[in-house]
Structure to design on (351 residues):
């Protein structure tokens, strides 16, 4: 399905229970990373980023307005949400309520199929699904662009999961007044030539990470002497990436994605104190990717705020790449993802 159709699908609300909506969204993996904020409250990023939405690990979220209730009731995988996760979801609902002029609390049920907190973008699919479901349940009439801006307020990378396939998230106008800067930072689909890619995900550690991406990003911007140079080079990477995607040049897409991700990890390693997400198992997988290339297979790695490695390759080579990576991943689970769809509403009615 092309991205424009998906965007329209988001806006088509079938009938359902009053003030209740269910939405589904998939994670995305950045090929040009988002790392660093200009504004923490509005979640305005320092740089543009670009991602591929996956066809695996969907998150399904149901929001039901609960007039008269004294507080929001949030469950993740059937268990009550706690701590930071709960705080972020309630803050997001507050934002939706403010826009909708409602004081209704809500019951939120989320089912994640991705291991939470493992650098596998569970917050991206999570806040994208929540944005679509909550906006509908509270009767906000938002188009896909506005929904991407709303999802951004939950987690920056979530803005990109509104759309399918390849997606750019604009950093927006940094020189503008707050309202304009907010309006100008949204995601949209990126045209791509024939690529037929796959992303082999090597889960070397599915446990939650020690340092959240939010905290690591802040520390990097505040203390890493390598942050500014990376941000400057990331701009050039994005231009080159868009060109490579447009002409369907997967080799160049992979080359740029790998250097951009390793550069991001270099910025963290230079933070004070250093943030290091790579584990010995990650390095072994990175070595296996180098070996695949020496053997003539198109394979390039990217990594996020965790030790897991994602390998971009041709769809036709996915099983071979998965086999090699499995051998290197020291018993970790291997998943093969392809480009996936944007967020969509399953049922919903905001009355
Ligand atoms: C390394 O979107 O999780 O995955 O905006 O603070 O919620 P917050 O951060 P988040 O950061 C994702 C960082 C990344 C790179 C990326 O997805 O672009």
């Amino acid at each position: 399905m092309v991205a424009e159709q998906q965007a329209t699908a988001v806006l088509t609300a079938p009938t359902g229970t009053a003030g209740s909506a269910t939405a589904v969204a998939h994670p995305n993996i950045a090929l040009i990373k988002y790392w660093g904020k200009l504004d923490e409250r509005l979640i305005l990023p320092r740089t543009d980023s670009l991602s591929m939405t996956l066809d695996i690990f969907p998150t399904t979220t149901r929001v039901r307005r609960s007039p008269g209730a004294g507080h929001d009731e949030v469950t993740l995988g059937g268990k009550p949400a706690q701590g930071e996760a709960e705080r972020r979801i309630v803050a997001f609902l507050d934002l939706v309520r403010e826009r909708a002029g409602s004081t209704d609390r809500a019951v939120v049920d989320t089912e994640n199929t991705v291991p939470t907190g493992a650098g596998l973008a569970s917050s991206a699919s999570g806040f994208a699904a929540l944005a679509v479901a909550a906006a509908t349940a509270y009767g906000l009439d938002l188009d896909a662009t506005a929904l991407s801006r709303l999802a951004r307020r939950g987690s920056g990378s979530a803005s990109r999961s509104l759309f399918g396939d390849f997606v750019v998230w604009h950093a927006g106008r940094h020189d503008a007044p707050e309202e304009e800067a907010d309006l100008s930072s949204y995601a949209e689909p990126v045209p791509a030539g024939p690529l037929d890619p796959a992303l082999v995900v090597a889960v070397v550690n599915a446990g939650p990470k020690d340092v959240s991406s939010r905290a690591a990003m802040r520390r990097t911007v505040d203390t890493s002497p390598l942050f500014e140079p990376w941000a400057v080079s990331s701009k050039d990477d994005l231009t080159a990436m868009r060109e490579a995607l447009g002409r369907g040049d997967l080799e160049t897409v992979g080359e740029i994605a790998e250097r951009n991700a390793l550069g991001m990890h270099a910025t963290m390693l230079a933070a004070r104190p250093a943030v290091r997400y790579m584990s010995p198992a990650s390095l072994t997988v990175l070595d296996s990717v180098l070996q695949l290339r020496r053997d003539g297979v198109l394979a390039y790695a990217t990594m996020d705020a965790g030790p897991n490695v994602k390998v971009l390759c041709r769809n036709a080579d996915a099983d071979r790449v998965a086999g090699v990576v499995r051998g290197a991943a020291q018993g970790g689970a291997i998943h093969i993802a392809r480009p996936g769809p944007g967020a969509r509403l399953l049922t919903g009615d905001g009355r």
